[in-house]
């Protein structure tokens, strides 16, 4: 259902803007007739307000990262095209299509729209390797679409051609979100506290005994630290069969 609603909204964008590899959300706002206000320090990441013919998207001035600002605007456009409500107040919309963030149906739909607007799957798939992903692949994709590395990582993992990959985000040592290209049933097996010392972890290595609740045998582990207290951990290997999770 999410994909159907999102696809319909993307079709509207293509009718308005023509087909493109990806779209600038601020330019799309101009085409639709939505004014964007970005100079107000808000309590939420973004607001959509539609009233008496006025269409406004507010993005908090507290958000300094341009990629994140663009995602918030794209997210609010998604609400405008798909949900037709007068007011949306959205917080923590900087991480698209990941578990643990924005669990409501309409928030998921707006996130799906935003990530497809900024990095369409049809354009992404030819760029993905026929093997497990690494952060160098993801960095190339982020540059290609001019999106954040976190956004590129999540979308790439979910569209990956390889099996059994998991992307984890830990912030200050605690699990913030995760995503995968397979089953989501293992979420209770993911360590809530980061099981490795990020400060000394090798950028890329094979490890045993750390992720045994998720994988069988050796696991390829790659660590990327976009900020001092935040770590993205990319894992690939042979995932434990879901039936074994219920029996363990």
What would you say about this model in short?
By secondary structure, this protein is of the alpha+beta class. It has helices at 2-17, 25-32, 66-83, 105-118, 121-124, 135-145, 149-158, 242-247; strands spanning 35-40, 46-51, 54-60, 87-90, 165-171, 174-180, 204-207, 215-227, 230-239.
What's the helix and strand layout?
Elements: H1 2-17, H2 25-32, E1 35-40, E2 46-51, E3 54-60, H3 66-83, E4 87-90, H4 105-118, H5 121-124, H6 135-145, H7 149-158, E5 165-171, E6 174-180, E7 204-207, E8 215-227, E9 230-239, H8 242-247
Helix pairs in contact: 1-4, 3-4, 6-7
Keywords:
five-stranded antiparallel β-sheet; Arc Repressor Mutant, subunit A; about 35% helix; alpha+beta; globular; 2 domains; disordered C terminus; about 250 residues; four-stranded mixed β-sheet
Strand content: 25-35%
The CATH class of the largest domain: Mainly Alpha
Structural class call reads: alpha+beta
The coarse silhouette is: globular
H/E topology pattern = HHEEEHEHHHHEEEEEH
Helix percent reads: 25-40%
Radius of gyration: 19 Å
Mean pLDDT: 87
Count of extended strands: 9
Number of domains: 2
Instruction: Let me know the largest β-sheet.
Output: 5 strands, antiparallel
CATH topology of the largest domain: Arc Repressor Mutant, subunit A
Strand order of the largest sheet: 6-5-9-8-7
Unreliable residue runs: 244-248
Count of discrete alpha- or pi-helical segments spanning 4 or more residues: 8
